[in-house]
Input
Amino acid sequence: MFKGKKFLILGVANERSIAWGIAKALHDQGAELAFTFVNEAIEKRLRPLAEGINCSMVLPCDVQNDQQLDSLFTEIGERWGKIDGVVHSIAFADKADLDNRFSKTSREGFKLALDVSAYSLIAVAGRAEAIMNEGGSIITLTYLGSQRSVKNYNVMGVAKAALESSVRYLATDLGEKNIRVNAISAGPIKTLAASGIPGFRELLNKFAESSPLKRNTSVEDVAGAALFFLSPWSAGVTGEITYVDCGFSTVGIG
Ligand code: NAD
Output
């Protein structure tokens, strides 16, 4: 189903990244991939991973930089022509805004978290639209902290709420061109980004105990759902926030 299809993957930091799990699954199904990195340190870790799956298209893109975003999509357009989908797997917040009380969130910290974690989807989708094949699909990653107050998730929860709302508005806009936009709300997974959240280990334990499946979410769980949303199997689905969290979000009190 993915043979010859082309996907842009934003957000691989290392082999534990959710984006890497999705990329591997796409590669296994025959897709061609392009990756982006935010800085040199990430580039160093990403290049060997990409080379390991015979991918040489590894390009710079700090999503806070409009010029880099423009160059990225120009280069992909020149090298590939059209693409079939985008995986947006990016988030960032100042550590101080996760450590401190939410009511102490700084104006700069709020802007930073919302810019990198929510506006970036709009910036990417708007540019991707121009080089996306009809029937293309964009996915992003979100978390339950957008809907509930989760301890220490703080400003990132607000950013994820903005991200989820953006998914609905982008789905409406891009639906005119038969391009779909969906979000996967993943349960907690031990990654670089997650390690910045104080008390993450306790959160993992709580999830495993309370979820109907009595375990934590794996990257493979998320990758499976991602393949569905990136494939024609989900041709009639857009603007959705789908929970891939072993059922945790469905469990009530008691
Ligand atoms: P990760 O650290 O592997 O990935 C985060 C990525 O964001 C990194 O590759 C980093 O380089 C990139 N990034 C940060 N600032 C950037 C910028 N300015 N420009 C470009 N890229 C930038 O962690 P992850 O857990 O795989 O996170 C991927 C996504 O999944 C995030 O949106 C995260 O919020 C979401 N998510 C994670 C979990 C979890 O528990 N790990 C749960 C639900 C949702």
Notes: The chain is about 45% helix and 15% strand. The longest strand covers residues 132-142. The two ends are 43 Å apart (CA to CA).
